[in-house]
Amino acid sequence: MRPPRPARLRGPRRLAALLLCAAAALFPTAVPAGAAAPPPVPGTLQGYDIGSVFSAGVSSGGYMATQLHVAYSGTFEGSAVFASGPYDCARGQLATALNACMDTVQNLQLTALEQATRDRSARGQIDPVENLAGDPVYAFSGSADTTVKRPVVDALSDYYGRFGARVHYDRSTAAGHAWITPLGPNSCGATQTPFLNKCGTDAEGALLGHLLGSVAAPGSGTGGSLIRFDQNAYAPGGSASAISMGAEGFAYVPRSCSDGARCRLLVALHGCKQGYTYQGFGTRFVEGAYLNEYADTNDMIVLYPQAAATGTLENPNGCWNWWGYLGDTAYARHGGKQIEAVMGMVRALRGTGTPPPSSDRTVLSSTDAEDGYVKAAADGSGAAVGTLEDLSGLALGRGTDGKVNRTVVSFDTSRIPAGREIARAWLTVTRSSGSGDPWASPAGNRLLVDVRTGCFGGCAVEPADWSAPASVAGGARIDAFSSGSAVSADLSAEAVAALNRGGTTQFRLGFASAPAGTAYLFVNRDTPVTLTVEYR
Questions:
Q1: What's the pLDDT band for 16 if we cut at 50, 70, 90?
Q2: Cβ contact 346:28 at 8 Å
Q3: Does 138 lie in the same domain as 45?
Q4: Residue among 428, 427, 438, 430 at smallest CA distance from 525
Q5: Quick one: 384 and 311 in the same domain?
Q6: CA dist 251 to 20, 27, 38, 172, Å?
Q7: CB-based contacts of 288: which residues, under 8 Å, 6+ apart?
Q8: 3-state secondary structure at position 322
Q9: Nearest one of 284, 114, 295 to 193, comparing CA atoms
Q10: Domain enclosing residue 372, as ranges
Q11: Where among 306, 334, 359 does a domain terminate?
């Protein structure tokens, strides 16, 4: 996936949008029925009888898949990569990532990359490169992909060949920059969300056939369990967000594996803008990648780690770290923060790692489809749903149209563990833009948080939500902040009691007094509002 571009090249948001997710391969088979995946269930990563481990990824996820394979070749026995280049192509430089590892403006210096790999191996910074000899590697480049150009993927194939890997390189499909899947809603040559394209082929059968040697026909993808687990437990320092990863990851575990069969493990890495928390993308990659179907019939667990966007221009589109963002100079070798987080998950699934401590905290992201804002006159008349959410975020305060804005965010609070007493809870909001100071207009104005058990009306935002009664009015407050994120005061005891442990809880944010003039802020554009709940 695409990193943000330096200002001298063009806007980072536009550039990151180019490097999204990449394609797969051929081997046509019957079109699958496309049964819905099982709903995620909260859990932890348990140990299973796992023999071999492989990685797969698309674009930024392809780069991360290669980093995992090369850095830990003693663990990973092969890799499948779509629309990405050779190991550590960027060499820690954003400009190189953009101009040599996606475009061909710059020479990516393949011989130097090979030597750097051998040098790291000699120093013990990665596993011995001798492990790569004979490993199956699947590479794919679509002829309609102008985001990661074909010579870059050619170099990936060449790179692995220099270490004796068995490379199967598919260049025969007119695919755009997307993961190719029989379940894709997009046409083959498209490059657009959700970056899941249908090309009349079974790319997953091709890549898994090469990695595993042979595969049984796919099943329904509904015979196992989709586990939603806490990624904080595996992040160095205990904070997934600090390394641009989401709070939650997923693992699909077929029934045969949970019953004790010897299984394989595939680590599947999404591309930019495909992470669970990215603008409500949710589990579309997890459900649409057409891997769970093969997992059911081939004794294979699929681990879906999740990257997440930063609130800054370091990584606004939730790409995996393949160019050294957030100052992680070890991103492609032992000690890389994201690599070590994923390796912790792999060890947990193999039963060789230290189990994470039981968590006493749950962090919930708001439900994008049910979030929104409502604007009205100061007395509540003429209420209407705001329309700038996708462009600017959720509005609070008085806008340039003279209307007063209130924001509604929704949470699935059934995910708070049953049988645990809530000790405290709070909201975190991240500002994207604004004008004026609504806390000072009038002086001492307060941004209050109302709580509604269930939904204010229907769970989708509607005009009546502006003045609909709350279960608890003013259950918390958020003090003035002009940039970054802010944490609310703890919810009052009454507000905690109003949290719906059986379903949805909605929060309405609004200023106690209408600002006298234009004074507003937008939140929730790039980073969702979160509800943190601590319990005992």
A1: very low
A2: no
A3: yes
A4: 430
A5: no
A6: 22, 26, 12, 31
A7: 179, 181, 183, 184, 185, 194, 196
A8: coil
A9: 284
A10: 362-535
A11: 359
**Beta strand ranges found along 399-536 (DSSP E):** 404-412, 422-435, 447-453, 472-478, 485-487, 504-511, 519-523, 530-535
Do both 355 and 384 map to the same domain? no
Residue 507, beta-bridge partner list: 409, 451
pLDDT digits (tens, 9 = 90+) for 81-131: 999 999 999 999 999 999 999 999 999 999 999 999 999 999 889 999 999
What are the residues facing 394 on neighbouring strands?
Answer: 523
CA angle 184, 186, 189 (to 5 degrees): 115
Same-domain status, 353 and 375:
no
CA distance 334 to 259: 33
Which one, of 410, 433, 422, 456, lies nearest residue 520 by Cα?
A: 433
Query: Cis ω on the peptide bond leading into residue 4 (within 30° of 0)?
Result: no
pLDDT in tens, 330-347: 999 999 999 999 999 999
Distance CA 287, CA 244 (A): 22
The answer to the question of residue 33 being in a domain is no
3-state SS assignment for residue 158: helix
> Which positions ≥6 away from 212 have C-beta within 8 Å?
52, 54, 264, 298, 300
Helix (H) or strand (E) holding 57: strand 50-58
Contact indicator for 406, 466 with CB cutoff of 8 Å: yes
Question: Do both 354 and 208 map to the same domain?
Answer: yes
> Which active-site residues does the annotation give?
59, 145, 177
Same domain for 273 and 403, yes or no, is no
Distance, CA of 430 to CA of 426 (rounded, Å):
14
Are residues 282 and 431 both part of a single domain? no
Q: Which two tokens stand for residue 158?
A: 């060449």
This prediction has a pTM of: 0.65
Token duo for residue 193: 């969300």
One domain for residues 370 and 323? no
Yes or no: say if 411 and 507 are a contact pair by the CB < 8 Å rule. yes
- Give the tokens for residue 96: 């190189």
Is 1 within the bounds of a domain?
no
Using alpha carbons, list the distances in angstroms from residue 138 to 253, 332, 386, 480.
23, 20, 47, 52
